[in-house]
Amino acid sequence: MTASNLTTDGTAAAGAQQPSSLASGTLLPSGNRRKPGKTALIVCFVLLAVCLAGFFTSASGPVAGLWCVAMMILLMFMSVPVAFALAIPSLIGVYGLSGVPAMTNILATSPFNAVSSWTYSVLPMFIFMGMLLAQSGMAARIYRATDRWFSWLPGGIGIGTTAAGAGLASVSGSTIGMTYTLGRAGIPEMLRAGYDKRVAVGTVIVSGLPGGLIPPSILLVVYAGIASVPVGPQLMAGAVPGILIAVTFGLFIFCLGIFAPKLVGRGKNAVVEKEKVTWGQRFQSLGEIWGFPLIMIVLFGGMFSGAFTPTEAGAAAALTAMLLTLWYKRKDSPVGNVSRAAVSTVSSTAAIFFIIIGAEMLTKLLAITGLAPVITEFITGLGLNRIGFLLVLVVLYLFMGMFFDTLSMMLLTIPILLPTLTVMEVSPLWFGVFVVLLGEMGMITPPVGILSFIVHNIAKNPEVNLGQTITLKDIFTSLLWFLPVAVFFLVLMISFPQMTEWLPDLLERTAGATATQ
Q: How many other C-beta atoms can be found within 10 angstroms of the C-beta atom of residue 403?
C-alpha cells in the first residue's frame, strides 16, 4: 500500500502538511508545553516567595542551593523560558552568597565560557542539515519508502512507521517535528488499513524515541559539552541503542500482527482496499531517497575513516544536504529554501546557546553552594549499587518528563549528577545515552507527556482520524501497551552496557589504525 497522503514527488499533500514548527525549520518549538492556569500561577508565585525567603534565611550553602533549584523548577512549571529559569535563580544564589562582584563576574564570563567550547561547534552544522532536509521534503520521501518496503508484513505499516521514525531521527534532530510528520501521514494510513486506533497512535508516539539517540543527535552534543566528553564517541554511543530500540518496537508490532491480527487490520475489513505494491515501486521509492544514504556516508564514513573530525564531518554533511536541497527544489525557489533553513538555523542555535549559558550559571551556583558534593554523599550513603542508582533515576526522569522537555531535564540534573557517576562506576558515554533516552521516554509518559498531547491534537483532525473519535483515554491506553517495551529496552541497556560502548571503541580503533598507516 502506498502512502496516500504523499504526492508523487515525495512532498506532503494538503491533508498531510507538516506543521509550521517543522516546515519553517523551527527545531525546538517553544509552544510545546501547556500554560498553567491562573490558580496555578498564583500558587507558583507564593511558592517562589517561600523559596526566596528560605534562601535568604538559609544556614548553609547546600541548603541555599536547594532553594535555588526549587526556584528553577517552579519557573519551569510557570512556562518561563528554560534559559531564564536556569539563569535567574543561579544569579540570585550567587548574589546572596558571594555578593555583587561574583554575580557581575558570572555575567561577564559565563556567556563566552559556556558556548565557546569546541564541542558545540558541530551544533550549527547538524541543525542546518536538519533544517535543509525538512525544507527539501526528505521526510515524506523516507516515510513513503519505508511504507512500501514493510507494508507486506504483519503489522507492516506500523513497522514502516517505526522505521521511518528512525530514519527521520537521523536527519531532523527534532522529535516533536518528526512526530508531527509521522502523525499526519501515518495515523490515517494505519486506520485505512484497519488498524486499531490505539495501535495507530501508540506507534506514532513511540516512533520518536530514537530521535535523541541516532546521530546526528543535538541532545547528545549538548550532553557531551556539559559532561566534557568527546563529541564523536558520544554520538557513536547513541547509534546502536537508537537503531535497536526502533527494531524492538518493530518486533513488538510484528508480534501483534501474528498473535493479535485484528489490532493491525488483518482478518477484518479495512476502510479502503489495500493497493498492491510492486517491486518496481519499492525500488523507485529507494531512488527517491538516494540523498539520505549519501549524507550518512559522508557523516559516518568521514568519521570512521579518520578523514574528518566530528565538526568537519558535520560541516561536510551540511554541505551535502544543501546541495541536495538545491537539487530537490531546483524548480521551486531553491535559494529561498536554503535561505529559510539558514535563518532558522541561526535562530535555533541561538536559542540552544542561551539555554547552555543558563546551565553554565547553574554549574557555577552548584560550585559556590557545595550542593553537588552533598548530593553525591547522600546518594552514596544510601548504599545503592549501580543498578539501584540507575533504577532510581528511571523513576525520577519518568516523573520529571510529565512536566519538562528532555533538554530542560538534562540541563537541570546532569551538573548535579555528574560527580556521582564516578563513585557509581557509570561510564559518562553510556550515561549520556541513558539519560537522553529517559528524557525522551518522559516526554510520552502520562498524564502530562508532551508528545501524548501533540498526537492527540493531530488525531482531532478529520483528515487524520477518518471519522473515528480518538480520545485522550485511547492515547493513554496505547501507551500502556507500548511503554513496557521501552522499559524492557532500558533494562537491556542497564544489563548490557556494551551496546553503547561497542561502536565508539570500534571508531577509536579504526581511527587509530588509520592514523598509524
A: 18
